[in-house]
């Protein structure tokens, strides 16, 4: 599809007020799902984040990596076990989690951003005791519940002109490392930073009135409406904890929170820089 010069100019003009709104403000992006596994989508996401950084938005990327952790556990002959949707993480598994998240995945994303012309630094939640945690449930092993976010390492990286790329492992004062849910960590980080916006990339278009019909996308949700949407079954299953994270971020002072479809190329740019947006906005 070819776009006329006038249409291109119109697109750029439409983006201007959003560039002004987010200029020098913090935008936290939780990155995971299909957009993390598909190489083409991964390149598009990293390019979009570099673009946002270059136009003056302070992007903080927070990533998980559940499928990659499962693949590595399979390679070493260890079965993945889950309780209430959370990975059971014994001592051997937490070592694998740290290796995959903070090593292979984190540094791969940093490298890709540099290839796209950006400047990024990889961090994990144990760096500077950024994500402090305690054991969530003994049945889960080293799965952490966040007790504190220390934003100073993130702010230092932003002030130096780099994009922080954060893997979601936590730590405690005894030196234990914990596996942290990426949605929870990203929402807590956004709240602690008092971010202008928080974007959660998922494998669905957003909240749908009818789960079988993507044209029924709910574009805006007031947090006060969420309980009713849960009782109606519109928010259900795995979406409940994701929405709870969005609500928590709003309550902690984040201005705008979005759930968007990470399977759509350039969905971040469409959400941040256009009138229509692409997903569901919570306010």
How would you describe this structure to a colleague?
This protein is α/β, with parallel strands linked by helices and 283 residues long. The protein has one domain (24-282): Acetylglutamate kinase-like (Carbamate kinase). Helices cover 42% and strands 21% of the residues. The chain is built from ten helices and 14 strands. The chain has helices at residues 5-22, 34-37, 39-54, 66-75, 91-115, 152-159, 182-192, 226-231, 239-251, 267-273; strands spanning 26-31, 58-63, 82-83, 86-87, 120-124, 131-135, 144-149, 163-167, 169-171, 177-179, 197-202, 220-221, 256-261, 280-282. The strands form four sheets. The protein has an eight-stranded mixed beta sheet with strand order 5-8-2-1-11-13-14-12, sandwiched between helices. Strands 3-4 form a two-stranded antiparallel sheet. It has a two-stranded antiparallel sheet with strand order 6-7. Strand 9 (169-171) and strand 10 (177-179) form a beta hairpin. The chain is globular. The mean pLDDT is 89.
**Name of the CATH superfamily:** Acetylglutamate kinase-like
Q: Decide which structural class fits the backbone.
A: alpha/beta
State the major sheet.
Answer: 8 strands, mixed
What is the radius of gyration computed over CA atoms, rounded to a whole number of angstroms?
19 Å
Provide the β-strand percentage band: 15-25%
Which CATH first-tier class would you pick? Alpha Beta
Number of domains: 1
What do the pLDDT scores average to?
A: 89
Q: Spell the H/E element sequence.
A: HEHHEHEEHEEEHEEEHEEHHEHE
């Amino acid at each position: 599809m070819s776009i006329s010069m006038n249409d291109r100019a119109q697109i750029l003009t439409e983006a201007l007020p959003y560039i002004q709104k987010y200029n020098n403000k913090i935008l936290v992006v939780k990155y995971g799902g299909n957009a993390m596994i598909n190489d083409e989508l991964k390149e598009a996401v990293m390019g979009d984040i570099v673009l946002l950084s270059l136009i003056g938005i302070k992007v903080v990327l927070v990533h998980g990596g559940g499928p990659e952790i499962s693949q590595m556990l399979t390679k070493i002959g260890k079965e993945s076990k889950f309780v209430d949707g959370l990975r059971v993480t014994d001592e051997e598994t937490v070592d694998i989690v740290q290796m995959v998240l903070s090593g292979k995945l984190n540094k791969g994303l940093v490298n890709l951003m540099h290839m796209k012309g950006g400047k990024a630094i990889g961090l994990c939640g144990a760096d500077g005791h950024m994500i402090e945690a305690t054991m969530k449930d003994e049945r889960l092993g080293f799965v952490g519940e966040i007790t504190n976010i220390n934003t100073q390492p993130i702010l230092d990286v932003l002030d130096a002109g780099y994009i922080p790329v954060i893997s979601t492992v936590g730590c405690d004062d005894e030196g234990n490392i914990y596996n942290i849910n990426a949605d929870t960590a990203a929402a807590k980080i956004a709240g602690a930073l008092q971010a202008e916006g928080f974007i959660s990339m998922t494998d669905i278009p957003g909240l749908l009135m009818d789960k079988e019909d993507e044209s029924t996308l709910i574009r805006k949700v007031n947090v006060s409406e969420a309980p009713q949407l849960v009782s109606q079954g519109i928010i259900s299953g795995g979406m409940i904890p994701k929405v709870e994270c969005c609500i928590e971020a709003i309550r902690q002072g984040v201005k705008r929170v979005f759930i968007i479809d990470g399977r759509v190329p350039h969905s971040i740019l469409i959400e941040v820089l256009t009138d229509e947006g692409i997903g569901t906005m919570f306010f």
